[in-house]
Amino acid sequence: MGQNLKGMPSAEQRLPIEVARLPRRTPHLLGASVPGYMWDARRIASCASSFGTNQVVLQVPEMDVLVLKAMQDLGVHPNLLAVLDLFVAKGAGAGETPVSLVTQLCFGGHLADAMALRQFASPALRRLSPGVEVSLAIAWISQLLSALAFLHEGRIIHRCIQPESCILDNTRIVEANMVLGNFSQSSRLHLDNVMMDRPEGPLPGSASYMAPELKRQAMSSTGRPIEIKSDCWSMGCVFYLMLEGKPAFNYSEFPSRAQKGEYLLPRGPKEVQEFIATLLQVDYVQRADAQSALAEAQRLCRQFPRSSDVDADPCAVDLS
CB within 8 A of 67, min separation 6: which ones? Predict the structure, then answer.
């Protein structure tokens, strides 16, 4: 750790103001929006003013530092949770990780919360429209795939795509855009698709969003394959949730239905059903990669343009 961060200036050297000036309400607003990272509760409790209008400070697990630095090297993407700064914070106690990051502030919460709140917004209408409006779901998945393709191009695999990793930047669902976050399980890849810096351990994420090849390997005693298109299966599961308001595969059904690729067709046009089938392809060799999936999602965006009219989605809710 010390060697990796050699020469990195302290927070006081990097930033003109105190590092962890966060309002007390920030953890309540965003604690679930950036899963996988730990809030520096000691610093938050001692501060009353905001660090920045659209910024928040998080502690970083030690193994994430190189991945986050690699993401900084990739540059900015509008649909990736922005890593604005990475620094050594002074005053860390024994056993604490002395690395913190500054990331953008997203007020809309994550997709899991948005879908749950929506389910209770209108019990009568949710039976007719369990998920979000089709064109909105297409726009959202296109944004998330754009972020994923950007990561994959930079040889970074996310490894934990699920509703809690998909963050809304606006409290009004019909106006919100999607940002991909939660990089606590992400890993860099060598050119031969072998992970550089992720140790063995439990597979991350929910089984309902885990690619079947990873689930099979988790139940075996052999080594674990690192397949970059496993992220694409998870993205297909997220898209299904947007459309149907429920997972394509429940935990109790895993791995039987997922291993066979058996799921009820989501509502929507045939083109949408065919698109999701390319992501929920059991054979990862035949499964769409992030770039080809993005191209198809963008085509669907043109075919089914997004509406900003709240009347287009009678179950739309305000998350504020």
Answer: 156, 183, 186, 187, 188, 197
| 126, containing H or E segment | helix 123-126
**CA-derived radius of gyration, the chain:** 20
Could you tell me which of 90, 15, 96 has the C-alpha nearest to residue 55?
15
177, two tokens: 């855009």
Count helices and strands (H / E) in the chain.
Answer: 12, 7
The identity of residue 207, as a single letter, is A
What domains lie within the chain, and their CATH numbers? 11-104 (no CATH), 111-312 (1.10.510.10)
Is the CB of residue 259 less than 8 Å from the CB of residue 215?
A: yes
CB 231 within 8 A of CB 183: no
SS3 286: coil
pTM: 0.74
* pLDDT tens per residue, range 176-225: 999 998 877 777 776 555 454 454 555 556 778 888 888 776 555 455 55
